Every structure is written in C-alpha cells, then in structure tokens.
Records
---
Amino acid sequence: MEIDNLVVRRAVDSDAAAVAEVWLRSFKAALPGIRRAHTDDQVRSWFREVVVPGQETWVVTVDDSVAGMMVLDGEDLDQLYLDPAWQGQGIGDRLVHLAKQRRPAGLALWTFQVNESARRFYERHDFVAAERTDGHRNEEREPDIRYVWRPGKQEP
C-alpha cells in the first residue's frame, strides 16, 4: 500500500514528544492488561532525555506527524511501535526492512508472550523464537519471548 507524504528518517530531538505519544498509545492499545512499570510522564522523559538524543531512533511520518517509531540498540530491535490508527498499512513492514538493512548480520528482540499480533508480525518477517522467560528480567514481570533474525532468506 502506498501512503502519500510518508517519510522514514532518523528522529531528531524535536520528535521526542511525538515518539513518546506513539509509544504510549500503541502500548495501551496492544497491551491493555499489562501493568506498565513507568508513568506516562516517566515514559515521555525517557524518550526526551535518553532514547531520542542517545539511541538510533527512527520515525515514520505521514504529513509531518509521527505514525511509527523504531529504536535499534546494537543488534537489538529495541522498540517498534505504531500509532494504532496506522497499523496494518505497511509502516511496520518498512521499519523491519530498514532494521534488517541497518543490521545485516542479524537482529534480536523481546516481545511479551501475550502480544500475539506482534508475535505473528515478527514471525512473518522471519524472526524465530529463541528463548522464553517467565518475565523475571523485565520491569513489567510479564512472560516474554526473545526472537532472532539471521540473514538467509532474501526479502523482496
């Protein structure tokens, strides 16, 4: 699907507030039963002070509004969230493709076991479940899955 006025670019400091809002809306929509470890204001501060200025953060904008965001940290695809209004339109596919281009040796990520839509999404993109935990290592204490992608199959 082609979206007019779609831009994929590195995030800049002035994007931090919009990136945080996308994260918050997406988390609330996808994981309403998960207890978040941080308040909305703490999440906003983290994106403003840590993530956007200090990590490889990417945004997808449509008509200059942030519709999706992704953070790469080493080989980890650390964050990938879409505004719920933009899900199912190919934006997540673009971000995963970009992540694979940026990390051609491979990627890994964590997602909660209950997040079945995220699990299906990553499995469609050739990520394979490599580890399951009871959540003892994450702040939410929610059972999770580590997925890995190693190059082999070429994407179109």
---
Amino acid sequence: MLESYITVDCTADDYRRWQATRPTLSAWIKRMNDGGVLPVSRTDLTKEWIAPGEELHQELELLAEAGLSPNQILRLTGANAAEALHRSDVRVIETGRRADLVLLSADPGKPISNTRSIVWVMQGGRIVPRASPKP
C-alpha cells in the first residue's frame, strides 16, 4: 500500500493531517492539469512524506490517484520536463543523443506503478550497474 512507503517515520498525528489534506491536494493537481498548467514531475507535489529513492514512483502513483492518466503522468517526466526547460536535445533516441534511458519489464500505462519494474538504467549511453543493497 502506498501509505506504508510514505509514512514510515510519521507519528499518528502526522499521518492523520496528511491524510486529511490528500483529497484537497489531489483535486488541486487535477484542476491545474486540466486547466492547462504544464505539470512537471518532481516539482508539483510536496515532499514532506516521501523518502529519497522512492519519491518519483510515489509521486507518479499520487498523480494517478489525483486522476491523471498514465500517459499524462509519463509526459510529466519526459515531454513536459523538456518543454519546461526549453530543451530540444532530449526525448529522442538516436545516434549522438545523450542516451539516458530506463528499460521496464512491464507497461507503465497498466498501471503507473509498473515504473517500479526496472530492468536496467542507462545514463550517458552506459548501463548503470545495480548497487548492492546496504543493510
């Protein structure tokens, strides 16, 4: 369950307050998106309850909960981000490009939580080795 990731070290009172604000935050995000605001992942949600390393996946799941479609959500991390940064040198896979890619074993459109099914990550044209988990 999403809440278990987000609220690991929260007090019961912290959790109740966060839960009380979720519907308002979700409705606000949906209205902004539907109203033409260009949302970009990692900037449009508060992060008080999200742990580093998990935050992007959790943010995508919260956006789905707010009513955005998987396609809209995936655009936040790619096309919208490039547009917001006025970057035309990204979003294309071809020789000479930067080659920062993620290969998934499941379709993130069915459901968005499939972004967690990472097979490998490529950064700068090289596959990044997986680090050993730390105890």
---
Amino acid sequence: MDDLEKDVDLSRRDPNDLNKHVQTAFEDVLGEPDGSHSPDCVWRTSAMCFKGGKACCYTLLTGLCGIFIALYWGCEFACISFEQIWCTTPWLRVCGIYFGCLQKFFGTCISCCLAPICETAGLFFSQITVKNS
C-alpha cells in the first residue's frame, strides 16, 4: 500500500465538514408534520425509494465522472499553488520592498516640508480665543 492510499480515510470522508450544507438524507429533505401523515407503507416505501435512487444515481455519477473531476480539481489546485508560490508571493515581497522605500521617501518629504508649516499654523491658531457674551 503506497502513501496516497494510507492518507485516504474510507470511513470518514468529510472530516472537516466541508459539505455539511448538502445533507440529503430522507429525514433532511422530507418530513410530514403532525396531522398530515401518509399511510405507513407509503412513507416506508418512499424512504426506501429515495435512499435507493439517491445511492444508485450518486454511485453512477461518481463512477462516470468522479475520477475525472478529481483529476481536474487536483490540477486546478496545483496551478493555484504554483501561482501563489512562484508568482504572487515573490511579487508581494518586491512590492513591499519598493513601497517601503517610497514610504520612507514621502515620510521624509512630509517631515521636511509640511511639518514646519503645520507647526507654524498650529502655533498661530492656538492664540485665538473665543468669548461668549
């Protein structure tokens, strides 16, 4: 048995509850409230038909398409990982370096040019007093 087969848990196939919203058991889809009950034989037969039809259709669809869809998604996430690792992360690092330099440059310009003007305006306006009469 190779490593890929060891990693697959055949008993618990959604350990992170990714598809909790897709619960499709008979009881999650159909329910008869008090006062509106079909005969017991109809309810039991309906439940068996629902479960059997769902299982048969799901098995057929996954048998025909599941492997190819899994292959597609594996390739898709490989491409996303490649793009993030080899393109996006280095690009963000380059931007961080350049923008860090720009931040220092503009910070220095503002400190040298704008700070004295703001300080002078602050001193000028601090002498204003308002009297209510």
